[in-house]
Amino acid sequence: MLRSLRVRDLATVADVTLELGPGLNVLTGETGAGKSMLVDALALLLGDRADRAAVRPGAARIMIDGEFGDLGVAVASVLSDAGLDGEEVLVIRREVTSEGRSRAWVNGSPTTIGVLGQIGAALVDLHGQHQTVALADRAVQRRLLDTYAGAGDDAARVRELHLALSASLEAIAQLLQRRDEAVRRADWLGHVVREIDEARLRPGEEEELAAESHRLAQAGTLGEHARRLRALLEEEEGVAGPLGRVRRTLDALARLDPPVEGWRDLLNSAWAGLDELGRLAAEYADDISDDPDRLTDLERRREVIRRLSAKHGATIEEILEVRREAVAELALIDDATQELQQMERQAAAARRAFDEAAGCLTARRKEGAARLSDEVTRVLPGLALAGAEFTVELVPVEPPGLDGAERVIFQARLNAGMSARPIAQAASGGELSRLMLALKVAVARHDEAATLVFDEIDQGIGGETGLRVGAALERVAARHQVLVITHLPQIAARGDRHLVVAKGTRAGIATSDVSVLHGEDRVIEIARMLGDAEDPHARRLAASLMSGSPVSG
User: Fold this and answer.
1) Measured between alpha carbons, how far is 41 from 96 in angstroms, rounded to an integer?
2) For residue 91, what are the β-bridge partners?
3) Long-range contacts of the stretch 407-413 (C-beta < 8 A, 24+)
4) What number of CA atoms fall less than 13 Å from residue 35's CA on the CB side?
5) What pLDDT, on the 0 to 100 scale, is given for residue 56?
6) Sheet containing 24-29: which strands, arranged edge to edge?
7) Does the domain formed by 1-129+427-437+444-517 have CATH 3.30.365.10?
8) Handedness of CA 420, 421, 424, 426 (dihedral sign)
9) Distance set, CA 534 to CA 162, 489, 503, 522, 528 (Å)
10) What is the pLDDT of residues 272-319, one digit of tens each?
11) What is the side-by-side strand order in the sheet with 404-413?
12) Could you state, in order of their start, the residue ranges of all structural domains in the chain?
């Protein structure tokens, strides 16, 4: 429910606060006073497109604040999905600068205009002169019928099962595509596997071949160095001579000072290490030799690996991975048949479940469409639409989709001799507003939006019809908060709360103000709407309308 709406610097509105209550709130005032401007402000607050030209002359920005209470489940769900805090009171702020920039906040947290629109749709059902006529939208019509028919859960189930069926069919299509691609590439894939298998590659083989090739290419130089190292270790004029002199000097030192004998272990370790180094150098010199044939074989092997690397991957590991992928793709040709059979069984089960759910939804819609058509048609004559007929047409859709097996089309025949047409084509603005009201009367107990706003609903009507429209609004207001902008005293007299808009001049600029009327002030305003606020008869008639009793001469 909308508790309050504060509007600052919007066109003729300098700073106005509307305090609204439950039931039927009526907003009256002279033509041009700014009543519809307040509806526009509410639309802006709830995500409507901003127009910087609407900023009041001399002001920097439009500021609109709205406070909502008694939030429903739908609002809480939208807030949760948007990552916003859901509290008992919801405060929304919208700012539009004179440069055209727009910002919005929900309970103090910044949000996008898109999210604001989602929240607004759950909070308020707004039908104003300058708004897109939501009732003409097929999705709105479908949801309204489903709500009326109690088919909301069925519609959600159909959507869920259709998504599951679509996913199953997409998986089958992807598997078939992969299989067909594997069949097309089978010869090439087989060639890849054979070519790699024939090479008998080993991980790490590249490094081993490179190292051996390097040794063979440098065999002469490497052998010469090894033999020279061996000579230095074994010949007297090499390392052995100096070490022998070290040993003799150590022996002399130990004879004079026995504790030095312990150093001999270090010398012995050096002799042992040098001896082992000499042995290894000798083996290395014997083993390494020029072997042109072996070097040729190594280069041929390395060329095989280079050729495969150029085609399949930079390393042996990557080449072997290509082989594994080729084997898996070839296996798909044989394995796909069994997998497809299983997936097709699952898809068939998903289709049966979807068809059954869609059939149940269709049955509920058909029953609901018949009842809604009759109920709305019965209300229309009392809303100055005598002889009008409202029908809900269900047009089969093939194949059925996310929204079921039919399109929902609201149609109306508003004049005798005319054929029924979609309501967007059959109804003018005022007629469409009254169609909306008739629908709201019919579905009031099901509607999720807590607040309903009507502007221009009394266009082209008066007298007894005005009384009936007022009575219809009163019935809707028994279940919802209703705000109606009206010129009709018959409607204004029904209000639980009466606000009046008056326009004056402030600092040379036209300015609209709002006040709440009570008691005699309200009688005077309704008398003005009847024709003359000073006329005693008009005042008696106004009081009679407010009390609901007939007027005596």
Assistant:
1) 11
2) 67
3) 407/138, 407/142, 408/138, 408/141, 408/142, 408/145, 408/365, 408/369, 409/138, 409/141, 410/135, 410/141, 412/388, 413/388, 413/389
4) 23
5) 86
6) 109-111, 102-106, 90-97, 61-68, 2-10, 13-19, 509-517, 497-506, 24-29, 481-485, 451-455, 124-127
7) no
8) negative
9) 66, 15, 20, 13, 8
10) 887 788 788 777 776 676 667 767 777 888 888 888 888 888 888 888
11) 389-401, 404-413, 421-422
12) 1-129+427-437+444-517, 149-361
- CA-wise closest residue to 486 among 29, 68, 6: 29
Determine the Cα–Cα distance for residues 159 and 142; give it in Å rounded to an integer. 13
Tokens of 41: 């402000």
Model pLDDT, residue 359: 96
For residue range 166-193, list pLDDT tens digits in order: 999 999 988 888 777 777 777 787 788 8
How would residue 552 be classed by pLDDT, with cut points 50, 70 and 90?
A: very low
Q: Which amino acid is at 28?
A: T
Structure token digits, residue 120: 């607004």
Structure tokens at 363: 């049955």
- Provide the token pair at 469: 């429209």
Measured CA to CA, the distance from residue 499 to residue 29 in angstroms comes to 9
Residue 510: phi, psi to the nearest 5?
-60, 135
- pLDDT at residue number 130: 43
Does residue 440 have a pLDDT over 90? no
Instruction: Count CB neighbours of 273 within 10 A.
Output: 10
Secondary structure (DSSP) of 458-519:
TTT--HHHHHHHHHHHHHHHTTSEEEEE-S-HHHHTT-SEEEEEEEEEETTEEEEEEEEE-H
What does the block give as tokens for 236? Answer: 């007297």
